[in-house]
Amino acid sequence: MGNIKFLLLAFFLIVNVANGCWEEERSALLELQANIMSLNGELVVDWAGYNANGFINCCFWKKVKCSLATGRVIELDLAARFGSGDDWRFNASLFLPFKSLQLLFLSYRNIIGWTKNEGFSKLRQLPNLKVVDLQYNPIDPKVLLSSLCWISSLEVLKLGADVETSFNVPAYNSSMMSKKCGGLTNLRELKFEGYGISDINILFALGGGANSGLRNLEKPHLNDNSFNSTIFSSLKIFPSLKHLNLAANDINGNIEMNDIIALSNLKHLDLWNNNIESFVTTKGSKRMSSLHNLLLGSSNSNSSRVLQSLKSFSSLKSLSYEDNDLTATTTIYALRNLSKVEYLYLTGSSLNDNFLANIGQMTSLKVLSMPFAGNDGTLPNQGWCELKHIEELDFVDNNFEGTLPSCLGNLTSLRWLSLNGNYLRGNIASHSIWSRLTSLEYLDIAYNQFEVPLSFSQFSNHTKLIYLDVSSNTIIPDTEFQN
Ligand SMILES: *[C@@H]1O[C@H](CO)[C@@H](O)[C@H](O)[C@H]1NC(C)=O
Ligand SMILES: *[C@@H]1O[C@H](CO)[C@@H](O)[C@H](O)[C@H]1NC(C)=O
Ligand SMILES: *[C@@H]1O[C@H](CO)[C@@H](O)[C@H](O)[C@H]1NC(C)=O
Ligand SMILES: *[C@@H]1O[C@H](CO)[C@@H](O)[C@H](O)[C@H]1NC(C)=O
Ligand SMILES: *[C@@H]1O[C@H](CO)[C@@H](O)[C@H](O)[C@H]1NC(C)=O
Ligand SMILES: *[C@@H]1O[C@H](CO)[C@@H](O)[C@H](O)[C@H]1NC(C)=O
Ligand SMILES: *[C@@H]1O[C@H](CO)[C@@H](O)[C@H](O)[C@H]1NC(C)=O
Question: Which positions carry the signal peptide feature in this UniProt record (predicted)?
Answer without folding.
Answer: 1-20
